């Protein structure tokens, strides 16, 4: 029992974990009572939740506890940013077996704390329960700062689709880990600790974005949600997707012939999930900073090309290949 959370007990563990989190201007009452009280300066709070399950989302042999902490924050605060909001606070449900080392819980918490410092939020509560499967369920809250939220449903024909943040790197990192081969550090680190462009969410709202979401399941599949919600069609220009040199190197290490590497890398940029980049639709006359890379156009839904499994997204005018993540669909 020594050095396991079973030895420490639930309430000591809660005290140790919550002691790591600073208070911020968004916190009226932090952890310790029946609920937290969070400031909502304009009267609205953006709320979202995502779950990480060991074996499904991470493996302890591939990711450190700190990595999982970073990732739990990143995937949730990316959803807040994708609404055009500023990340403020988190609640963390922590379900773990009793023989989990205390050190793992401490390191996970340090990862949460450090990613919160990057995103600008903090933790105000959570829950600790026993479970055979290590599972992290995070609720994130955010503040719109008086602005209108950027929904998935506002894209209009003529809009430009632009992305900011990495694409394909996390999928390449995962493939390297699955293959048991070493590869570019950037791919491995983006898989273990995604780096969503948090501030770009509110920036997109200021720039007049008509629709936005973060890329968790794959660019094509996720933009399909925008296309359906907005009643439009989206055509992506594959040649506007410029693979990072590290992504090209990773696909070569994974066995792609050098001359095919750009195409394979673009395939990962189109279908790879978990980068938590932001993709948004902007009016054609929007003046976008360079980090928002135009990657496609919004068209009338009636111009939709292709048949079969059409998510309302084409690539270079042709039906997009599948490949996005579906937790319950065919693998
Ligand atoms: N069990 C559920 N009950 C109610 N709403 C849900 C449930 N699961 C998902 N949703 C809602 O469905 C919408 C889409 O969920 P989804 O999880 O695909 O989005 P996401 O969190 O942006 O993506 P990802 O989970 O891949 O990061 C969200 O508004 C989410 O709150
Ligand atoms: C061990 C292990 N195996 C597979 C994957 C790949 N994976 C899991 S969930 C997901 C989509 C986003 O999830 P969600 O929709 O729940 O946010 C992806 C691409 C992984 N990360 N770790
Ligand atoms: Mg979700
Ligand atoms: Mg999302
Ligand atoms: Mg998903």
TrEMBL record:
Q: What are the UniProt keywords, alphabetically?
A: ATP-binding, Kinase, Magnesium, Metal-binding, Nucleotide-binding, Thiamine biosynthesis, Transferase
Sorted alphabetically, which InterPro entries does this protein's record hold? PurM-like_C_dom, PurM-like_C_sf, PurM-like_N, PurM-like_N_sf, ThiL-like
Q: In which pathway does it act?
A: Cofactor biosynthesis; thiamine diphosphate biosynthesis; thiamine diphosphate from thiamine phosphate: step 1/1
Q: Which SUPFAM superfamilies match?
A: PurM C-terminal domain-like (SSF56042), PurM N-terminal domain-like (SSF55326)
Q: Name one GO molecular function term.
A: thiamine-phosphate kinase activity
Residues that, per the record, bind Mg(2+) 4:
34, 48, 79
Positions that bind Mg(2+) 2: 50, 79
Give the region (Disordered) as residue ranges. Answer: 302-331
Domain PurM-like C-terminal intervals: 156-276
The entry's Mg(2+) 3-binding residues are: 34, 79, 214
Catalysis performed (reactions)? thiamine phosphate + ATP = thiamine diphosphate + ADP
In this chain, substrate is annotated as bound at 57, 274, 325
Q: Give binding positions for Mg(2+) 5.
A: 217
Record-listed E.C. numbers = 2.7.4.16
Ranges for domain PurM-like N-terminal come to 32-142
Q: Could you confirm whether the keyword Metal-binding appears in this record?
A: yes
**Compositional bias of kind Gly residues:** 320-331
Matching entries from Gene3D superfamilies are given as: PurM-like C-terminal domain, PurM-like, N-terminal domain
Name the positions where Mg(2+) 1 binds.
49-50, 127
> Where does the chain bind ATP?
126-127, 152, 216
Record's miscellaneous remark: Reaction mechanism of ThiL seems to utilize a direct, inline transfer of the gamma-phosphate of ATP to TMP rather than a phosphorylated enzyme intermediate.
The protein's job, in short, is: Catalyzes the ATP-dependent phosphorylation of thiamine-monophosphate (TMP) to form thiamine-pyrophosphate (TPP), the active form of vitamin B1.
Q: Give the family from UniProt.
A: Belongs to the thiamine-monophosphate kinase family.
| Name of the featured protein | Thiamine-monophosphate kinase
Question: What does UniProt list as this organism's lineage?
Answer: Bacteria, Bacillati, Actinomycetota, Actinomycetes, Streptosporangiales
- The record's gene field reads thiL
């Amino acid at each position: 029992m020594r050095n396991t959370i079973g030895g420490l007990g639930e309430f000591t563990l809660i005290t140790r974990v919550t002691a790591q989190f600073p208070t911020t201007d968004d916190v009226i009452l932090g952890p310790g009572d029946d609920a937290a009280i969070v400031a909502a300066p304009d009267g609205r709070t953006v709320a979202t939740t995502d779950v990480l399950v060991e074996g499904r989302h991470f493996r302890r042999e591939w990711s450190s506890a700190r990595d999982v902490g970073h990732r739990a924050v990143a995937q949730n605060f990316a959803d807040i940013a994708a609404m055009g909001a500023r990340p403020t606070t988190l609640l963390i449900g922590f379900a773990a077996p009793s023989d989990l080392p205390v050190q793992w819980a401490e390191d996970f918490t340090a990862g949460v704390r450090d990613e919160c410092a990057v995103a600008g939020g903090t933790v105000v509560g959570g829950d600790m329960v026993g479970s055979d499967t290590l599972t992290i369920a995070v609720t994130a809250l955010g503040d719109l700062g008086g602005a209108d939220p950027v929904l998935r449903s506002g894209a209009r024909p003529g809009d430009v689709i632009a992305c900011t943040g990495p694409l394909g790197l996390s999928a390449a990192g995962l493939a390297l880990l699955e293959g048991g081969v070493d590869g570019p550090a950037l791919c491995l680190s983006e898989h273990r600790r995604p780096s969503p462009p948090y501030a770009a969410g509110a920036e997109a709202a200021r720039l007049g974005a008509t629709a936005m979401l973060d890329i968790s399941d794959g660019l094509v599949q996720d933009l399909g949600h925008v296309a359906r919600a907005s009643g439009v069609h989206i055509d992506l220009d594959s040649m506007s997707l410029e693979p990072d040199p590290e992504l090209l190197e990773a696909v070569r290490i994974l066995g792609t012939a050098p001359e095919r590497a750009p195409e394979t890398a673009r395939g990962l940029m189109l279908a790879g999930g978990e980068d938590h980049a932001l993709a948004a639709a902007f009016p054609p006359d929007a003046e976008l900073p360079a980090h928002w890379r135009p990657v496609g156009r919004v068209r009338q839904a009636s111009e939709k090309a292709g048949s079969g499994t059409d998510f309302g997204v084409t690539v270079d005018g042709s039906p997009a290949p599948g490949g996005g993540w579906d937790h319950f669909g065919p693998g």
